[in-house]
Amino acid sequence: MMVAALFPDVKEGHLSRADGSRVLLEASRMDAFIAALRDAGYSVIGPRIGQAAVVYGEVSAAADLPAGVEDEQAGGHYRLKRRDDGALFGYTVAPQGWKRWLYPPRQTLFSATRAGGGFRLSKGDEATERYALLGVRACELAAIKIQDRVFDNGDFKEPGYLTRRREALVVAVACGRSCGTCFCVSMGGGPKPGEGFDLMLTELTGPGRHVFVVESGSDRGAAILDGLALPAASADDMAAADEAPREAARQQTKAMDPQARDVLARNREHPRWDEVAKRCLTCGNCTMVCPTCFCTTVDDVTDLGGTRTERVRSWDSCFTLDFSYIHGGSVRNEGSSRYRQWITHKLSSWHDQFGTSGCVGCGRCITWCPVGIDITEEVGAIRASEEGR
């Protein structure tokens, strides 16, 4: 789905009041910035420290943000460490994606309560909260755009997602560094958000200086900045803001094969699937942290007295045996077939369904795989076998 379908004032690119001008926000005024978002009627969701990781949760002040922290990520490895500055967005991507705020992990679709000789039906969870998503990276913004297409394909719409998405204010952050599992550049994106944000921050730190160059991308975003009356960014600040994501792009060491779609489509019976299955635990971590996966299951839950029941939709994974269960048993009994289903859908048949890849190069599936299976290496191995290397 095109951005303009969700937002009437959007041209494909930035929104109507985005004129390319940028202003300067001192880090000392981050509290005022967050307060402006809250005063505009948004619950601010942003990065925090929790369970020895950066997690997304409600933010009420700058003190809630992960100041002076960066992440160290590799296959099956995630650690936080201190930075030598007070950067608020010095990490790359958190384990969680923004999907959990736009498409919650558990939703009640409807409930039924016994009334006389029948049942009274009630609506399920309604999308009433307005979120300001603070700290959305370019890869995460790309993932949100992919889910826009998934949840409104022209014939079928997911009303809860679309309502939350339409009401959400997106505050993107350009990356100043890449971690060991980032490969967004090879997926056609990059460390700098290109479109679809309401506001974009680029953090600049240095001796005695900590500022954000801020660009608006919508009427809503511009209105927030108008209320703060920020000064214009200097030419030097804008040049530094442009250079920061370029440096992050240069740091990326992983890349997805540009022919991944065709390579996987040609190799559905490749012996590599059995090789990866020897390592894969079929735990489903990769699907749970992926910002574009959308598989769900539906359960009916009834109380012991038989007076009330709920129909509940929860996130699921194509790695579970029950997910492919039909009458008579599961279609994908082997771990190899489940891993093949996930990677070929994500990188190949997703194009047929939605017109894009289902991968944005965030690297979460590599980091949070307990045995460090690397999606870029698996595609590369199959491609290399075709070429006899």
Biggest pleated-sheet summary = 7 strands, mixed
Oligomeric status of the shown chains?
A: single chain
Report the principal-axis shape. Answer: globular
Q: Classify the beta-strand content into a percent band.
A: 15-25%
- The unreliable regions are 1-17
Estimated radius of gyration: 22 Å
Number of strands: 15
Which class of secondary structure composition applies to the elements? alpha+beta
The end-to-end distance, rounded to whole angstroms, is 40 Å
Query: DSSP helix count?
Result: 13
The averaged pLDDT comes out at 92
What share of residues is helical?
25-40%
**SSE string, helices as H and strands as E:** HEHEEEEHEEEHHEEEHHHHHEEEEHHH
Q: What spatial order of strands do you see in the largest sheet?
A: 1-11-10-9-8-2-3
Q: Can you describe this structure?
A:
With 389 residues, the chain is α+β, with helices and mostly antiparallel strands. Helices cover 31% and strands 24% of the residues. It contains 13 helices and 15 strands. It has helices spanning 3-6, 30-39, 99-102, 138-150, 159-167, 219-228, 235-250, 260-266, 272-277, 285-289, 335-354, 364-367, 375-386; strands spanning 22-26, 43-50, 53-58, 69-74, 77-82, 106-115, 118-123, 131-136, 169-173, 199-206, 209-216, 296-302, 308-315, 325-326, 329-330. The strands form 4 sheets. The chain has a 7-stranded mixed β-sheet with strand order 1-11-10-9-8-2-3, sandwiched between helices. The model is unreliable at 1-17 (pLDDT under 50).
